[in-house]
Write a structure and sequence with these properties.
Blueprint lengths: L1 H26 L15 H10 L3 H5 L5 H35 L13 H38 L10 E10 L5 E10 L1
Antiparallel strand pairs: 1-2
Pfam family, one: DUF5683
Organism: Mariniradius sediminis
Keywords: Signal
């Protein structure tokens, strides 16, 4: 008797749910979004524009607010390249002075011996060289951003999320059954 009641309840919930879904879907106003060819951006064109002139691909994609971020990254990176190079050259000159007269007291860094000067030279040269790689990374990120943004220009980002409850009937591996409701999200 319990099995028959559960089957009747399952069939009833399925029928009510389907009927309710039809009523809800018929009652809702639908918004139709049509993308014209003008709205869809060409990823190759955006990539080439950004490769030629950093930020041009972002402007082509309709995101001009990204351009100051790109050029701020370039400017900060150039500043750090120049700063690290100045420090590198300062310690390189100090090493040259030290090698000419190691016992002089009027050296630029009297507290450092030759090994300390060489360590500083290596440190500032390594920082400068890493900033060159970072510069290339910012340039590449600019190109990748334009390419991906153009690809996603046709992506539907509407707020149309729908939830629906459906009855659920599953057979377990151990031989039992589970009856319940499932929540399905459509996006």
């Amino acid at each position: 008797m319990k099995v028959l009641t559960l089957i009747a309840l399952f069939v009833f919930c399925t029928f009510v749910n389907c009927k309710a879904q039809r009523l809800i879907s018929d009652a809702q106003d639908t918004i139709k979004l049509e993308l014209t060819q003008k709205d869809i951006k060409n990823p190759s064109k955006a990539m080439i524009l950004s490769a030629i002139l950093p930020g041009a691909g972002q402007i082509y994609n309709g995101k001009p607010w990204k351009v100051p971020i790109i050029y701020t990254g370039f400017a900060a990176n150039i500043y750090f390249i120049e700063y690290n190079n100045r420090r590198y050259e300062l310690f390189l000159d100090a090493l040259a002075i030290y090698d000419q007269n190691p016992t002089s007291t009027d050296r630029p860094f009297p507290g450092l011996n030759r090994e300390g000067l060489v360590r500083n030279i290596d440190y500032w040269r390594r920082n400068r060289d890493l900033n060159y790689f970072l510069f290339v990374g910012i340039y590449a990120l600019n190109i990748v951003d334009a390419f991906v943004d153009a690809h996603l220009s046709a992506f539907d980002v509407t707020d149309d999320l729908s939830f629906k409850f459906e009855p659920n009937f599953e057979m377990l591996a151990a031989g039992g059954t589970v009856t319940g409701l499932s929540l399905k999200i459509k996006f």
